[in-house]
Amino acid sequence: MKETAFTIDTSSIKYGPGVTREVGFDMRQLGAKRALVVTDPRLASSEPVTLVLSALRAEGIDAVLYDQVRVEPTDISFEHAIAFAQDGNFDGYVSVGGGSTMDTAKAANLYATYPADFLDYVNPPIGKGMPVPGPVRPHIAVPTTAGTGSETTGVAIFDLTTMHTKTGIAHRALRPQMGILDPHNTRTLPKMAAASTGLDVLSHALESLTALPYNSRAAPERPALRPAYQGANPISDIWATKAIEMVSGNIVRAIQDPEDDAARSAMLLAAAYAGIGFGNAGVHLPHGMSYPVSGMASEYNPPGYPTDHPIIPHGMSVILNAPAVFRFTAQTNPQRHLYAARLMGVDTSGVAEEDAGAALAQAIIDLMQKTGVPNGLHAIGFTEADIPALVEGALPQHRVTKLSPRPAAADDLAALFQDAMRYW
Length: 424
Ligand SMILES: [Zn+2]
Prior knowledge:
Elements: E1 12-15, H1 23-29, E2 34-38, H2 47-58, E3 62-66, H3 75-88, E4 92-97, H4 99-113, E5 139-143, E6 155-160, E7 165-170, E8 178-181, H5 191-210, H6 234-256, H7 261-281, H8 285-295, H9 314-319, H10 322-329, H11 334-343, H12 356-370, H13 387-394, H14 398-401, H15 410-419
Parallel strand pairs: 1-8, 2-3, 2-4, 4-5, 5-8
Antiparallel strand pairs: 6-7
Helix pairs in contact: 1-2, 3-4, 5-6, 5-7, 6-7, 8-13, 10-12, 11-12, 13-15
This protein binds zinc ion (ZN).
Zinc ion binds at residues 148, 200, 204, 287, 314, 318.
């Protein structure tokens, strides 16, 4: 039997320049008396973190700082934060940073609230996929990048070091109670980080718009088993549509001029819009394929990122696969792919349906060039010899690859990685 229902869940959103100062009030409303503030070493003494700590303390909340988040976190860095959280007896969490930080806070909160073996809650087939037993502690997310939209989703992604691939924990209960979107907090984002996170937003929206429709999925045996990522649906489409327009119209300006408050604010909102869409509809192959790409980083370090370990930023690993994927999926729904290209500013009036994938791919490639993203997987150190390992890493990503509108077997994935090697 096919699915007949879909749900839209999201965090409460508070938006405004300078609104970070209200986090103490909001945390107190949620009942917390002792809060863990989670961030990464680069942001530990930054203005947003200082402001969060003082705002919490001003409301009488005992605020403790954990500043050891790893950018592109691993099971090991998650466990480090979990141990800190378990020892600290916290009844609230505030994350200040990018997706890595928000996801680390979600994991710390989950395992401190419901201790378990690490793989128990991790997505199958890599983990056991056990549902979260109940509500976790209140979590307010304060993003400092306009990217993951993690403030609106119940997903925490990490690198499983033994497998060299990313996987995650996904459950509605992990969604933060509130996302505080403050454009002041994204002013210091390095250019490549702004490009990578902004193109991640674009891909979230494009993937959720083109994902397998929710009513093409099999119905769950019982409501508790309905996945967080349900497939494209009429409400997620609205959020994705708007996000695609906002990113396409603002990303270049936001990167070139960090003082362009309007463009930067639009990107921060677009990240949340896309997050509301994909947090319910899901993403598909560009993300599924990105996990082994990031996990197999061996030599690449983009400008503006930590240099203590090789790093392929999440958004970069996603967007490098996207043009290849949309050429492959367009035949399932050419009109929807053409619609996406139009939202990106392409005049599709004379474009034939069989060219829909090419039109959308070209629109993405144009933005990649304008934002200074490397030319395909080859440019970040991959060769044809890596394709079997990349395929092996992408195959277990069922949670997302199953939402591809066109099923992708191992040989399809190999062809997609091949196509993603070079674009111009
Ligand atoms: Zn993403």
